[in-house]
Write a sequence for this structure.
């Protein structure tokens, strides 16, 4: 039976309202932890075991594990934080078609899809095994802390389903660009621009040369971009600049392009155009590329066959924690949350119809997984 023909799972939007109205801005540790503890409470009712990874300045990361049996292991991945500081966007409302609120699609709503599907599977089988749930607290600020934990835990799993929002036609995500943020600090020699121009070493001029070289690394045909988003330097118009800084971002779709650009960046930093200047590179890759793979395609093929569907897929330029898990060799599919739009704005919303359809499909996938068919 096509999953869309099945009876839609009953929704408890009061529960969703409860967590959406909690301010979960990444820097609001109290709110993020409260959101996480509510989720842990719901999961423990399904006989999940909680491992808490305490953090002092951000919310705690939560790893919820089911019982173990022989066979494949599936990781569900979500994040507890949102982008809205206290007092900016904290309301929940709904109409006939949409639910509105902070995190409703990015990604408290996606976490809720996973929860409801697990509840459905638990009701049918009375036990869930080999399906675990990792909830991290700092995704919206780059996962600088949690990425190390995610990468370490990833090696225990064969598959990963990430519950970021679905595409407009219910697409799941098979590829995401890798991203890195870098800084070049340039040290020059200050001098009076009128009296001692030739005694200075202009850090701003060196920055201009380097900016041009960095931007030239962009290859739009290969979807590789290098963007120098911020420049700073100098003291004033009458002084040869003694310092400058370039802040730039790299995005890429495959590891070959990553390696090409990283080597070129090192070359740009190590060579000076302006005599007397020195440059130091800092920063690095934040999340490596999520590339389609044979294992991922096999995962999709299983879902299509067992659920009698043709799962729509897409690639996205933005990153998520799917990048981290995928780069560890795990067959990863992202976009299992509901379709929504307006994320990262006060107009964020998610489709009720998409909630229901996503829960039904994910429930069916869990059932096939628990029966050993995936």
């Amino acid at each position: 039976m096509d999953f869309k023909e099945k009876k839609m799972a009953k929704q408890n939007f009061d529960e969703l309202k409860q967590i959406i109205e909690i301010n979960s801005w990444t820097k609001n540790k109290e709110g993020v932890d409260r959101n996480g503890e509510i989720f842990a409470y719901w999961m423990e009712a399904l006989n999940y075991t909680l491992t808490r990874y305490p953090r002092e300045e951000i919310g705690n990361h939560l790893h919820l594990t089911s019982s173990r049996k022989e066979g494949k292991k599936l990781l569900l991945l979500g994040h507890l934080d949102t982008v809205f500081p206290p007092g900016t966007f904290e309301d929940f409302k709904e109409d006939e078609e949409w639910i509105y609120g902070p995190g409703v699609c990015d990604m408290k709503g996606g976490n809720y899809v996973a929860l409801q599907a697990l509840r459905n599977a638990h009701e049918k089988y009375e036990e869930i095994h080999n399906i675990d749930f990792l909830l991290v607290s700092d995704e919206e600020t780059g996962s600088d802390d949690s990425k190390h934990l995610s990468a370490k835990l990833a090696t225990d799993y064969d598959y990963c389903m990430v519950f970021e929002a679905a595409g407009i036609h219910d697409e799941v995500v098979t590829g995401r660009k890798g991203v890195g943020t870098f800084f070049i600090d340039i040290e020059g020699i200050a001098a009076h621009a009128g009296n001692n121009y030739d005694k200075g070493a202009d850090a701003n001029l060196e920055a201009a040369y380097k900016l041009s070289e960095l931007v030239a690394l962009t290859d739009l045909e290969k979807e590789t971009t290098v963007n120098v988003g911020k420049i700073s330097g100098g003291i004033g118009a009458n002084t040869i600049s003694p310092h400058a800084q370039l802040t730039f971002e790299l995005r890429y779709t495959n590891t070959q392009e990553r390696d090409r650009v990283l080597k070129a960046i090192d070359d740009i930093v190590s060579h000076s155009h302006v005599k007397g200047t020195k440059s130091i590179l800092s920063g690095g890759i934040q999340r490596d590329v999520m590339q389609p793979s044979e294992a991922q395609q096999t995962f999709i093929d299983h879902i299509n066959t067992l659920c009698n569907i043709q799962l729509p897929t897409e690639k996205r330029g933005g990153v998520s924690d799917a990048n981290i898990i995928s780069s560890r060799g795990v067959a990863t599919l992202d976009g299992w949350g509901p379709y929504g739009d307006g994320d990262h704005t006060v107009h964020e919303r998610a489709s009720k119809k998409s909630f229901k359809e996503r829960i039904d499909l994910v429930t069916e996938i869990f059932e096939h997984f628990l029966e050993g068919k995936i």
In short: The first strand starts at residue 49 and ends at 53. Residues 3-177+290-370 form a domain with the Aminopeptidase fold (CATH 3.40.630.10).
